[in-house]
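User: Could you check the structure of this?
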Amino acid sequence: MSGEARGGRSAQLKHTGLRHGWTTGACATAATTAAYTALLTGDFPDPVAITLPKGQTPSFALAAEELTAAYAMAGIVKDAGDDPDVTHGALVRATVRRLPAGSGVVFRAGPGVGTVTRPGLPLAVGEPAVNPVPRQMMRDHVAAVAERHGDSGDVEITLSVDHGEEIARSTWNPRLGILGGLSVLGTTGIVVPYSCSAWIDSIRRGVDVARAAGRTHVAGCTGSTSEKTVVAEYALPEDALLDMGDFAGAVLKYVRRHPVERLTVCGGFAKLSKLAAGHLDLHSARSQVDKGFLAALARRGGADETLAGEVAEANTGLAALQLCQAAGVPLGDLVATTARDEALSVLRGAPVAVDVICIDRAGTVVGRSTVARAPGPATR
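Assistant: Sure, the predicted C-alpha cells are below.
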C-alpha cells in the first residue's frame, strides 16, 4: 500500500506485518476538517482526507455527524492499528462553531479531553490538552477549508472523546496534572505499533512536570511495586515518580540535559542487573541477564569459585541472588552499586546525585547503593 489509507483503515507496516494506526491528533484533524466543511457547505465529506506532517494523505470514515445552524460536529473512531493503545476504538469528536473575524482558531476541551492544571508541559495551565502539533494540523486544515469556501477561518473547535475521562485513568495524564480526560497527541499523525516513542515522551514530560513543581528528588521506577517501595522509603509525591518501565536510558539521558538534584532508580533485581552490566534498555527482548557478570560480582563480594560457578549456571537472576543471600554474599548491594555507577557514567558529570534500590517480586529491598554524584562538568 502507498502512503494513503482509505476509509479510516490502518496501513500495513513494511517488513513487520503489523498495521500502523492514526493518532488522536490525526483523528481530531480529520473530524475538524469534516465538521468545518459541513458548516460552510451543508455537506460532510465522507470519507474525509487530510495531509499529515510528513505528507501522507489518509482518509477517514465518519462515525458520527450533526449539523445545525450554529455548529457542526463530526466524529471518527480511532484505529491504532496493531498497537496496544488504550485509545484504540475511541470516538473522537470535533464540534466547530464560527467566530467573529479576527478571533483566530480557539480550542476548547469537551467531555473526555483533559485540561492542563500543572506547569511544565508544552501548554499553559488552563489550556485544553491538545498538543502543539495537532493544534497546528487543525489550524492548517481550517485555513485550507476557509480558502476553498471563502470564509475567514475564525472558528472555535471543541474536541471531545467518548468515555475519555475513564480511559485517561489508564494513562499518565492524572500524574502529569492533565485532568478530566485524554490528551490529543501526535507529532506525525501515525501510530507505529509497539513504538517506544510515546512512553519515552511521557518520561520526558514527567521530568518536566517534576522540575516545574520544584521537586528536587525524583525516582525512575520499573513498575508499580518499585513505585510503592520508593514512596515508603522517601515519601515522594506522585509527581516525582517516573514510570521508567524498561527505558532506563531515556530517564538518564533526559535528566542529564534537565538535571534534578537527586535521582533514585528502583526496580527488580534482574532488570537492574542489566543496567549494572551496561544495558540501557531493560526489556527482555533487547537485553538479557548476564549470569557470568553476576558471578564476577559475586566473586568481588567474597564468593568462592564453587558459589561463583553456581551463580553462573543459575536458571534466573533471582536464583543467583538467592544463592548469594544464603552464603552471605551481598550480591544485591553489589548490583545496586554497579548500576548506580553505570547511571553516573551516562549522566556524564551532570549535577545529579544517584542511588539505586533493587527489590524482589514481593517488593522487599534486596540491594541498595549509597548516594553518589559523579565529578566533572555536564556534557550533552
